[in-house]
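#struct-pred

JT: dropping the chains for the assembly here, can someone run the whole complex?
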Amino acid sequence: MVETITPVVYGGRARWATALVLHVAGATVTAGLFGAIMGAIGALLEAPWGRAGAGALAAVAGVYALGELPRVTATVPQMRRQVPGWWREFFSWPIAAALYGAGLGVGFLTYLSHGTLVVLALAALASGHPVIGALAVAPFGLVRGLSAARAGSVRTHEDSQRLVDRLAASPERRRSVANGVTLTFVAVLALALAVRSSGGWASFATAVLALAFGWGAISKSSDIGRWRRTLAAHGLSRGVETTATFAVPCAEALVPALAAAGLTRAAGIWAIVLLLAFTVEAVRAWGRFGPQVPCGCFGGREAVSPPALLLRNAALASIALAVALRPAPEAVLAWPGWPTSNEILPAVLVIVSLCVAGFTSWTAIRWLGRGTPA
Amino acid sequence: MLTDLLGGDALAASLLLVLMAGSAVAGWSALYGP
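RK: done, full complex below.
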């Protein structure tokens, strides 16, 4: 990636310096924004979650710290995408530099070799505070963007390739030690916070359930083609398959919506109903086609072994039961009531504007993510 | 400033500082990826 922000690409050091500033700004803004969004989602889900939240952070940081040891691997969720090359030809150089930075700021969209960003995202979520979330994640974008300064001495395309080769060949050990030490510190401090805190188990269970079903809905609707292929492998009738394409993600999205509205009993019961339906369908598909049928549960393409899927659904059902039985919290999202006669027009304008803004953002993200210009 | 943001909690502020350092380490590590 570093080869895209070099003096040779930008035609001189003065332009390159401006491009670097824009690149760093783009990466810092999107990383900070990602952290802030995680903090806001946490706030919607009653974070911070007391001892439960701090304990979970300590556990995840501990697992990824162990993952930095030689011959130990901890899976890091990532999309392994690269910023499209056509941006450089299509956009003016200042916009392209800022966009390249922006694309790198949300690290999960790109390649990640260490689990530190997962821990940071969880910490931002558990903080339940957008500012704290932004503060925790923004340095990732800042330093990742600034790293392009390494290309300052590049004079030719050959220099650029040599730099890429040198970076790729540099030993992993130094980075593993740095990430491992930091993650160990995070685990120790989060553990101390967990010991000092109390409670939070019910709200944490609600958040886990809401996030699991929210992730299921997002992964299906963001790659509807893959979800369709998964459904096709189940051999359902045409009508059921078409209905399920849209009904399942909507039904899953209802769980986090109910949880954020403070309707935890309804969220828990609805989650149990969905888990029962999913389990019955999985058992039916296995009986007919064998265990290689993909479940498509969280956007994965691989088939899940029957015992693992049953165990996972049973674990989620236990959490859902705990959520259904907990005392209802105060709603974070509440319906403000019907607008009065003189509020109808502003309300309609706000709703329409939000829909247009949402559609425009979605279209822009899809278009920018394409491998070739439209 | 961090302790003010975290309600005067020194332990939580220390955790946030370590997270920010970890964030910088993660950003630096990502330079070596594709």
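JT: nice. The mean pLDDT of chain B is 85. Chain B touches chain A at residues 2, 5-6, 11-12, 14-16, 18-34 (CB under 8 Å).
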